[in-house]
Amino acid sequence: MSILERYPDRVVPITESGCWIWTGPITERGYGTTGHSGNPVHRESYRLSKGPIPPNMFVLHSCDVPLCVNPAHLRVGNQKDNMQDAVKRGRHTGGKNKLLTEENIKDIRSSNKSQSSMAKEYGVSVSCIHLIVKGKRYK
Q1: Is residue 115 assigned to a domain?
Q2: 70 plus 128 within the same structural domain
């Protein structure tokens, strides 16, 4: 059984791109969910069509469309693969971090501002600021 057969009223195949767009509930992160378990529905689509997902593995979108559930656009990858995809496609703050200059880094490390306000100011995540302040990024 495919995701199209299981949820015929919640999946719209888009011929031009090949994506199958989920129209049901959506998580805060922009992924489709059945609403029952809260798990991303693209993982269910992968399982239905290709089998079990190995432990600690992610289901990645080759189309870069979070609501796509077309199994032909889904593949398994590890955390590193997932992060590399996110950075390459500009969806991860790691991609934005490259905009920080050496002067920005010095200012961040010497500032008395909150990490949250600096994250907003520089357009990066709070965790990025934290890692800079702790000397674990941009050494």
Answers
A1: yes
A2: no
The CA-atom distances, in angstroms, between 118 and each of 26, 105, 129 are: 30, 11, 7
From first to last of its 139 residues, what are the pLDDT tens digits of the chain?
889 899 999 999 988 889 999 999 988 777 899 877 778 999 999 999 999 999 999 999 998 888 999 999 999 999 888 888 877 766 665 544 446 778 888 999 999 998 888 888 887 777 778 888 888 777 6
Q: pTM to 2 decimals?
A: 0.64
31 with 84, same domain? yes
Contacts of 56 (CB under 8 A, 6+ apart): 78, 79
